[in-house]
Write a structure and sequence with these properties.
single chain, 330 residues, alpha+beta, 6-stranded mixed β-sheet
């Protein structure tokens, strides 16, 4: 199925579509026994994806969705995303397993073609994850991390990762927060970021600078670090949101580590690709997540470090220098 989506995506880059929007039908292959609830969730996703296709085809500025199937909060979040990039699903039928999540239920792997709301109409491929409450109403819609990464994080029990989260529910919960966090940048959602960063959050950013030759050091490049408060970080981010017509953030690697002594504190390291109208980079983001209050998860630390110290020469940041839980006194 995923191969056919990719082929259609390539064709869409060269061909101008002449047909009207296609309706989408979701079918759960397994994972849920309640036939009424199963039918409601299948219908909810079908209604949502068909409305997305209709709005994309007609170039509408907002999605119109019934609260019977999609919560009001999720509608607002979707329209924030829609204001920055439009999307469509080219599959008429999607077959996926229904997963049980900490909120209720979940479906992953919804294939999407993304069109940035820009003059160049840049396209890309993403997959979505949709969460339902226990009554089958859609309560969130995020872009997923890579499916293979998700599977490895859920199933991997390698002994050498002694402090990595081993409980499947904890892993799914953390990944849900990480996917929401990632999507919030694509949505330019400052309100969510204001809520998720703790008031005393520590923000650290690494920047590469040139070093002049001296008696003790050869000429070259090194990384220096600056710190920001939550207020400073969000003010700078707000300016970046306004200056860029689109922002795309991808996480293509994720490592989750549980704090050895503090319950419900986790270190999350991701490899991030940031692309925007004016700037792009690749690097490592490390976050300290506090999920002791499940209704209000908090990030106490966020760091960014460049992947390359010198990309021309191929000099990368030493993996041992990437921040981790042990670098912070919590």
């Amino acid at each position: 199925m995923k191969k056919s989506v990719f082929i259609l995506y390539l064709l869409s880059c060269f061909l101008v579509p002449t047909m009207a929007y296609n309706p989408v039908r979701l079918v759960f292959t397994d994972g849920i026994d309640n036939p009424q609830l199963k039918a409601k969730m299948e219908r909810a996703v079908s209604v949502l994806m068909t409305e997305i296709n209709r709005s994309q085809e007609q170039n509408l500025s907002q999605l119109s969705l019934p609260e019977t199937y999609v919560s009001k909060e999720t509608q607002d979040e979707l329209n924030k995303l829609w204001s920055n990039e439009h999307m469509r699903c080219v599959e008429e039928e999607i077959e996926e397993r229904c997963l049980t999540s900490y909120t209720g239920y979940q479906v992953r792997g919804i294939p999407l073609i993304i069109n940035a709301v820009t003059k160049d109409g840049a396209q890309g491929y993403q997959e979505a994850v949709i969460n339902f409450d226990k009554e089958g109403v859609i309560v969130s819609f995020y872009y997923t991390i890579h499916p293979e990464i998700y599977s490895s994080l859920i199933k991997d029990t390698l002994m050498e990762r002694r402090r990595e989260v081993t409980d499947i529910k904890d892993r799914m919960m953390i990944l849900d927060y990480v996917e929401h966090f990632r999507t919030s940048y694509n949505q330019k959602d400052l309100n969510f970021l204001q809520q998720v960063f703790s008031d005393d959050a520590l923000i650290i950013t690494g920047n590469v600078i040139k070093v002049r030759k001296s008696e003790v050091m050869p000429a070259g490049k090194k990384v220096i670090y600056t710190t920001q408060s939550k207020r400073q970080y969000l003010e700078n981010l707000s300016r970046a949101f306004k200056a860029n017509s689109y922002i795309k953030v991808d996480f293509d690697d994720v490592v989750i580590v549980k704090h050895p002594t503090i319950h419900d504190i986790y270190g999350v390291t991701v490899h991030q690709r940031w692309n925007s109208a004016r700037y792009s980079d690749e690097g490592y983001v490390f976050m300290v997540w506090d999920i002791r209050n499940l209704d209000e998860p908090q990030i106490h630390v966020r760091t960014w470090q460049p992947e390359y110290i010198d990309k021309v020469s191929g000099q990368k940041l030493n993996p041992n220098d990437v921040f981790s839980l042990g670098d912070f006194d919590l």
